[in-house]
Amino acid sequence: MGLSLVQSRVLLGLDALKVTVEVHMANGLPSFTLVGLADVEVKEARERVRCAIQNSGLEFPHNKRITVNLAPADLPKDSGRLDLPIALGILAASGQLDGSRLADYEFAGELSLSGALRPVRGALAMALALHMAQVNTRLVLPPGSAEEAALVPGAQVYRAVHLLDVVRQFAPEGAVAAQDSPPGEEGWLRVCPAPVCEGDALADLADVKGQIGAKRALEIAAAGGHSMLLVGPPGSGKSMLAQRFAGLLPPMSTDEALQSAAIGSLSGRFDIRRWGQRPTANPHHSASAVALVGGGSPPRPGEISLAHHGVLFLDELPEFPRSALEALREPLETGTITISRAARRAEFPARFQLIAAMNPCPCGYLGATTRTCRCTPDQVSRYQGKLSGPLMDRIDLHVEVPALPAHELLGAPAGESTGSIRARCTQARAYAHARQGKTNQALTGGDIDLHARLEPTAAKFLQSAATQLGWSARGTHRTLKIARTIADLAGSDTTTLTHVAEAMQYRRALKNA
Question: Residue 181: pLDDT band by 50, 70, 90 thresholds?
Fold first, then answer.
């Protein structure tokens, strides 16, 4: 007797795939059937939709045979985002809505039993995917989700607080809504990007006393986009340094902020107060490989994707499962992670800066002047051997963070502030982008030959050192990238012997007992 079509979207990775909710209503034995490869969460929508329609004062067609098809049939559907389009499809098929007016809109929202709309995961990711695909449509979303999606430039987003707010907009001419909207808030509203409140200020690097060498390495890493490993005894300041690293990075562009926020929205961890701030992911060392790189069914982003355009801080690096650490090797090179399953394949961006910290040995005091190490050479070798050679080769800077004596710690003046260091890092990055269009860390082999501008004496010195130290081709190239960053910080057009010599100091291996 009645057929209606309502458009919506489901998320697969960062892609928003179109779903058509087809509702057919006919005479026959009363039933409510939901088909189309729906997950358990979606199948439960039958009870939520029935109660929401009834409690909103609308008529649910109990005496009809209702069939809801979620097309395409081979696309998995999960979460409660399809509650609202299913409810609208039933109302349109029963004549309570004008189905022809729904064609220019796409709907997503979870329904409570009272008919109120609840936020859905991935609203910003959905709006960004539509923007990238240049799909011109109007989105109707619940409170919270609508404000997220409105951050995407050019998005046409409408916020609806209650099912009745949507019904009033698409009711047939002359029809009267069953009851008034819930008091206290305007139900239907076109959402425009609101001024974003600034989040909490980042910690200042001036809080860290001493550690001049480590701070210099942080500056180089921030200027060139390099990964870094901090090695030192307990309490030497490794975590303090790493937690202040994000403040040295230049401000995010609009595209970078949108990509980072979309991944956070997909995981339900987006906070609008932190819009435009570089993310810092700090997983515990008990995290699994799936937690770090992503996975599951459907695939979800991991910590490395949540740190996209930001910082991934791994404290106590050797304590992480070896499988989790080895899974970082490809993303460190490519900046993406591909999660393949039997039926689906999802790709997430993972262009992060790795900042890792570790002790030099199990007791932590190898090479320290304050206490004596009690570890045997075999224990030290096993501890450091948890980090494979290929992984260490992909970490650009290896920095020692020694423990400070008490008189230096208490008497040292405050160090240079984060703001002044960030200004130099931003200038060096701008210099690199003007020359090559990317950071120095992202240079490929051909780019290095073209943009390194290595002086002959520096090239000869680097070649000799790489041969004597047994560096791989990757290690040699990474040293050259660090040297190019040091030259950019110095404002030099060419990479000199001095720059190469300093870069070599950051490629030293761990000390053994």
Answer: very low
Which of 439, 472, 500 delimits the end of a domain? 439
**Which residue blocks in 307-455 are alpha helix, DSSP H?**
322-326, 329-334, 377-384, 389-393, 406-411, 418-436, 445-451
Secondary structure (DSSP) of 228-245: EEEE--TTSSHHHHHHTS
Which of 407, 439, 471 is the last residue before a domain boundary?
A: 439
**What CATH number does the domain containing 428 carry?**
3.40.50.300
Q: Hey, what amino acid is at 60? A: F
| Whether residue 185 is found in the same domain as residue 292 | no
**DSSP, res 491:** T
Q: What are the E-state strand segments in 44-122?
A: 65-71, 105-107, 110-111, 117-118
In a domain, 64, yes or no: yes
Residue-number span of the structural domain to which 413 is assigned? 205-439
The string of pLDDT tens digits covering residues 392-419 is: 989 999 999 988 887 777 777 777 889 9
pLDDT digits (tens, 9 = 90+) for 228-250: 999 999 988 899 999 999 999 99
Mean pLDDT of 364-383: 89
